[in-house]
Amino acid sequence: MTRFGDFQYLCSNVPSYPWCNLFYHQLQRHSPSTLAGPSANAVSAPVGINPICGTLRSGQGGSLGNIANVVACAVSIIIMAVLILFTNRRKAAVGRIELRHFFILYFLTLPFQLVTTGGFLEQGSSSLTILTAIHAGLVAAAFWTLLANALVATQVVEDGTLSSLIPFHFFTLAIFAITTYISLDVAYTYTSTFGPSNPPQALHSVPLFILTSVWPGAAALLYFIIMIWIVVGVLNEVRPMWYFILAAILFVLSQLDFFLLNKVICKGSTAKVDGSFVATILETIAVWVLYSAWKSITEDSWDDEAYYGR
């Protein structure tokens, strides 16, 4: 039976699920006999643990790796660079600094995603394991900055001030450090607290599951609830609300694609590509829509008339 905190089903049924890289290294060290099928040979193994479907490592059997998602990540990196530039230009907009940090963190997750799921590095290698742990830390921290943007938008504390930025940066660094450490502990089993999994084939880790699966979903949900309350209840606006609703729908669709259609696309393409590229595209579009929503409820620049009169 699957318990809360088990990654076994995800690592077998969801192609390109990056956190499986951590468990591959753990099993390779403690229970190598558990690795079977396509996972038995680390040189060609796809992302996952004994996956039902997965793209082989690049260069193995004519495989190009997870090429579709590599392209999607590359395009998303360019889009995010543009969004960061646009955000930086809106000097007077409320929450500009905080939103820019969210965009920067999401931007940073993309090259890590490209590497950890692209099929370039050998499964079980130290380089892939460490990069995956950092990737997990960046994802968890990015969702904190997303939620923090909603909290800043309530204007409980003034945005851009030390009272806003100090806790913002403290929790960003803390969540990144904690998630990265736990991820490394799962892979390398430094302590008995976070690993190894018992039984090995369950790929069990409650802290990692909370930080990489439960926390992102909860943070996104709270963000959308708070922002819609601010737009409708406080600002009494309607048009910006539809931006947030559209962003929420795109985010949900990206997750449905990744967890439900991913394997279908993988099988349909005979493991040449999987559905992770669709999820990446939808997530990036959702972030762009969030920028449009933020833009619609903030000022572009300070009103000079407030200082100099008419």
Q: What characteristic shape results from the CA principal axes?
A: globular
Query: How much helix is in the residues?
Result: 55-70%
CATH class: Mainly Alpha
Q: What does the radius of gyration come to?
A: 21 Å
Tally of individual domains? 1
Examine the coordinates and then state which fold CATH places here, giving the name of the CATH topology. Answer: Rhopdopsin 7-helix transmembrane proteins
Described by strand count, sense and barrel closure, the largest sheet is:
none
What is the name of the CATH superfamily?
Answer: Rhodopsin 7-helix transmembrane proteins
CATH architecture: Up-down Bundle
Averaged pLDDT, please? 93
Task: Quote the distance from N terminus to C terminus.
Answer: 72 Å
Number of strands: 0
- The SSE order reads HHHHHHHHHH
Strand fraction band?
under 5%
Structural class: mainly alpha
Low-confidence segments, given as residue ranges, are 301-310
The helix tally amounts to 10
Structure explained in plain terms:
It is globular, with a radius of gyration of 21 Å. It has a single domain (8-298), classed as Rhodopsin 7-helix transmembrane proteins (Rhopdopsin 7-helix transmembrane proteins, Up-down Bundle), CATH 1.20.1070. The chain starts with 7 loop residues before the first helix and ends with a helix. With 310 residues, it is mainly alpha-helical. Helix 4 runs antiparallel to helix 5 (126-153), helix 5 (126-153) packs antiparallel against helix 6 and helix 5 (126-153) packs parallel to helix 7 (206-234). The relative contact order is 0.15. 65% of the residues lie in helices and 0% in strands. The model is unreliable at 301-310 (pLDDT under 50). The chain has helices at 8-13, 20-30, 67-89, 96-117, 126-153, 162-188, 206-234, 239-268, 276-296, 305-308. One of its GO terms (biological process) is protein folding. Keywords: Membrane, Transmembrane, Transmembrane helix. InterPro entries: Chs7 (IPR022057). One of its GO terms (molecular function) is unfolded protein binding. Pfam families: Chs7.
